[in-house]
Amino acid sequence: MSTQAPIRRTTVPQIRARKGVDPIVSLTAYHAHTAAIVDKYADFILVGDSLGMVMHGMDSTIGVPLDLMIMHGRAVVRGTQRALIVVDMPFGSYEESPNMAFRNGARIMKETGCGALKLEGGARMAETIHFLTERGIPVMAHIGLTPQSSHVMGGFKTQGRDEASWEAHIADARAVADAGAFALVVEGVVEGLADKITAAVAIPTIGIGASVNCDGQILVLEDMLGLNPWVPKFVKKYGDLGPAIERAVADYASEVRTRAFPGDDHVYR
Ligand code: KIV
Fold first, then answer.
1. Ligand 1 pocket, 208 CB below 6 A?
2. Gap from CA of 158 to ligand 1 centroid (Å)
3. For ligand 1, is residue 222 a contact (CB within 6 Å)?
């Protein structure tokens, strides 16, 4: 019999209770081994639909299929033990009706073992958020720059530059919080608006390109590691893995070409 207490994952109520306490750390992860590293430091890990762009070379998140989210979600759950795992509902899997959202959401939860889902949209998604949370699916909401609506927004544009639009964004935040969302991603909005949204709701706000005063922060792992050829302006790079990978690949290619690879230490005899 094991004498060690099992490691417990961070729960949805624990994340919700962090409002105004200490900052919530989160990152995206899309594969088991990088997720295991992130798991040592993050309170929650998002399997975001940005995986379509940073892993699969798509030019937006709109083409990401449900099965792909499930496949990466499973890998991340397998690779982790501590963090709450949140999986994005991809475009077209939830907007049509609360019933559709529940059907697809339940499938993601059953097939990945994740602890919560994220979906994009403010007041227009409130009914769906209420429907899901009443039926056992915890929901993280996502407002401001919502990439699945990039065609409507005319691109990946910072929101709230015009102060006249702030009330609508704040109303979105209040609507999703009242509907039962346990946390709220605030993406790509001007700092003053992000601060007002954080003050307006009783659930934690998770900023990305928003404000240091949000209750937590999230970045896309490949962006902050320098693994993406294009990254948004607001992203601080904490690593520069692209050139490091290129150096390793170039060294390998040169050794193969000069017959220096595999070398004595790397062959079975
Ligand atoms: O898909 C994603 O990576 C996200 C983050 C930008 C919050 O939704």
1. yes
2. 15
3. no
Task: Tell me the residue length of the chain.
Answer: 269
The answer on pLDDT for 167 being more than 80 is yes
**Tokens describing residue 173:** 């935040």
Q: Whose CA is nearest to atom 8 of ligand 1?
A: 48
Q: Tell me if 132 CB under 6 Å of ligand 1.
A: no
Are the CB atoms for 206 and 195 separated by under 8 Å? no
Among 25, 28, 61, say which to mutate for ligand 1: greatest number of ligand atoms within 8 Å of CB.
Answer: 28
DSSP annotation string for 72-87: HHHHHHHH-SSSEEEE
Q: How far apart are CA 246 and CA 226, in angstroms?
A: 12
Nearest to 116 by CA among 76, 67, 156: 76
Please enumerate, as own/partner, the contacts of 103-108 that have beta carbons within 8 Å and a separation of 24 or more: 104/66, 105/132, 105/137, 106/137, 107/66, 107/70, 108/66, 108/69, 108/70, 108/73
pTM for the model stands at 0.96
Per-residue model confidence as pLDDT tens digits over 227-266: 988 888 899 999 999 999 999 999 999 999 999 999 888 8
Mind listing the domains of the chain with CATH numbers?
A: 12-239 (3.20.20.60)
Question: What is the rounded distance in angstroms from the CA atom of residue 40 to the CA atom of residue 23?
Answer: 16
pLDDT digits (tens, 9 = 90+) for 177-234: 999 999 999 999 999 999 999 999 999 999 999 999 999 999 999 999 999 888 888 9
Maximum distance among all Cα pairs of the chain, rounded to whole angstroms: 74
